[in-house]
Structure formats: C-alpha cells, structure tokens
C-alpha cells in the first residue's frame, strides 16, 4: 500500500546502512577472507537461529524445490562474500565496494530472464548512470597491480550477488527473511569448513570484535532487512536504491581507516545519490 511506502523505504535504507559496514569491517579484519567469512557465518547462524527460536519462526521448508533454491542461493552468497572480501584486501574500501556495485546493472539485465518480465529501460538507464558514477569514483589503476585484481574480484562478486538476490526474490514471499538467512549461513559454514585446515591464522581481540559486529549488525540485521525488502520492491529497485552503499562505505573508511578517496569521488557520489533519489521516487508508484 502507498501509505506504507515511506516505512518500507526507511527499512530498506537502514538495511543499506548496516550492510555498508562490511567494507570497513572487511578491511579491518586481518584474517584471510575465507576464514573471515566462515567465522562470520558461524556467529550469524547462532544469532539468527536464536532469533528464530525466540520468535518461534517456522524453519520448515515446504517443498524440495525450495530446498534446492536455498542451497544454491547460499552457495552463491558465500562465493559473493569471499570474492568481495578479497577485493577489499587487494585494494581498499572504495575500490572494493564500487566494483561490487555494478550488481544493480547485472540485476536489471538478469531479472527479466528469471521472472519472464519485460526489461525495464529505466532500470538500464539508471544502472548506466551508476556505472558512470563508479567510473568517476574509481582512481586510475594499472592492469598489473592489486587494485586491478581487486576490481576484478569485485565484478565477479557482483554477479554472484545479483543471481542470489534474484533467487531469494522467488522465495521471500513464502518464508521469513530470518529463516532464509539462517539456512544460508549454515550452508556457507558447512561448505567453507575445509578452509580451517588450509589457512593458518592467529586472530587477535580486535578481529573477534569486528567479526561479532560483522555477524550481528551487517549480516543478521542488515542482510535480513535487505532480503525482507524484496517483498515490497523489485530486485532491480532494491539493488539500484542500495547503490548508496559505497558512499556510506567510503565515509566509514575515511572515519575509521583514514582511507582518503580521490577528489573525483564527489562527482561519482553525486551521480550515485541521484539514481537513488530518482528510483526512490519512481518506485512509490508501484508500492
């Protein structure tokens, strides 16, 4: 209903703000990305499982086909997180987050294939504006350095994330967002278990604090709210509106890691914020 549109926008923007902390936390944690993601999922599974138990949220999966979708989406989500954190470690918060945020364009192009709907030209245009914004935000880079590798990891991560979100859109109408996130955390935890025997790490107290914050605020609350927003917005709309995340992420990086972006950031930031405002207004017609 239109009367609830503002509330839905607030919830989506809270989700975006919380999820955007992944950049600074991912850079801050010293452990290898696969280990970081494993612990992130362990803590998040405990938090989400406890929440589902407390709220008596039904964990029953209704159909075998739903189970397959949840498993696949969990694998995609895990791949997205690992490649994204490699992007952060190889570059910085700005590059890692901005390269990931090609995913609204990927989503806008793929969503019609999954839902057999007509491609929305406005989403393509807005997605292109986001890309232009990312071009201005991204500093010059050499194809032989780690920044280039970071961007490539971010681009791959964006594809995994886009497909996972599209798959979740099909299931969120029938299941609670916390239940879906809980199962995905369990799946990623099981799949990444072998990394504990591959990497040798010595986490410190700061790593544990950041991991708990990552599991609670970024994952359990932020990503659950974002998944639940799929009930009220199309995937393309939610994706484009979440394009403000790099702005939040860069600000967090500046405040907590002293990572100062290039002067072109202002131009790119204005372009990205413009698409968010336009899509927020445009989506009101359909909610």
| Poorly predicted parts | none
Enumerate how many helices there are, as a single number.
Answer: 13
Radius of gyration: 18 Å
- H/E element sequence: HHHHHHHHHHHHH
The percent range for helix content is over 70%
Q: N-to-C terminal Cα separation, in Å?
A: 6 Å
> Structural class, from secondary structure content?
mainly alpha
* Largest sheet: number of strands, sense, barrel closure: none
Count of individual domains: 1
**Overall mean confidence score, pLDDT:** 86
Oligomer: single chain
Question: Approximately how much beta-strand content do the residues carry?
Answer: under 5%
Overall spatial form: globular
Q: Total number of β-strand segments?
A: 0
Question: In words, what does this structure look like?
Answer:
Residues 14-137, 149-278 form the EamA domain. It comes from Lutibacter flavus. Pfam families: EamA. By secondary structure, the chain is an all-alpha fold. The chain has one domain. The protein is built from 13 helices and no strands. The chain has helices spanning 5-19, 22-28, 33-54, 64-90, 93-100, 103-115, 121-137, 146-171, 177-191, 205-228, 235-241, 245-257, 265-283. Helix 4 packs antiparallel against helix 5. The chain is globular, with a radius of gyration of 18 Å.
């Amino acid at each position: 209903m239109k009367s609830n549109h503002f509330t839905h926008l607030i919830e989506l923007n809270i989700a975006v703000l919380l999820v955007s902390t992944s950049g600074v936390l991912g850079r801050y944690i010293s452990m290898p990305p696969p280990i970081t993601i494993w612990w992130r999922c362990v803590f998040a599974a405990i938090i989400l499982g406890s929440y589902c138990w407390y709220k008596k949220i039904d964990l029953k999966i209704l159909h075998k086909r739903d189970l397959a979708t949840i498993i696949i989406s969990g694998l995609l989500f895990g791949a997205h997180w690992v490649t994204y954190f490699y992007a952060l470690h190889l570059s910085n918060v700005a590059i890692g987050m901005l390269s990931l945020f090609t995913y609204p364009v990927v989503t806008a192009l793929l969503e019609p294939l999954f839902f057999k709907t007509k491609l929305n030209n406005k989403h393509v245009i807005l997605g292109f504006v986001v890309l232009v914004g990312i071009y201005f935000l991204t500093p010059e880079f050499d194809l032989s350095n780690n920044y280039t590798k970071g961007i490539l990891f971010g681009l791959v991560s964006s594809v995994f994330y886009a497909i996972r979100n599209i798959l979740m859109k099909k299931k969120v109408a029938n299941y609670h967002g916390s239940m879906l996130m809980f199962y995905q955390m369990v799946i990623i935890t099981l799949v990444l278990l072998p990394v504990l025997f591959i990497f040798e790490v010595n986490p410190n107290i700061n790593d544990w604090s950041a991991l708990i914050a990552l599991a609670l605020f970024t994952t359990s609350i932020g990503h659950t709210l974002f998944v639940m927003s799929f009930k009220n917005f199309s995937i393309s709309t939610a994706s484009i509106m979440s394009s403000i995340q790099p702005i939040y992420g860069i600000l967090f990086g500046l405040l907590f890691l002293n990572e100062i972006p290039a002067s072109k950031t202002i131009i790119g930031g204005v372009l990205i914020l413009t698409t968010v405002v336009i899509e927020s207004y445009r989506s009101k017609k359909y909610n």
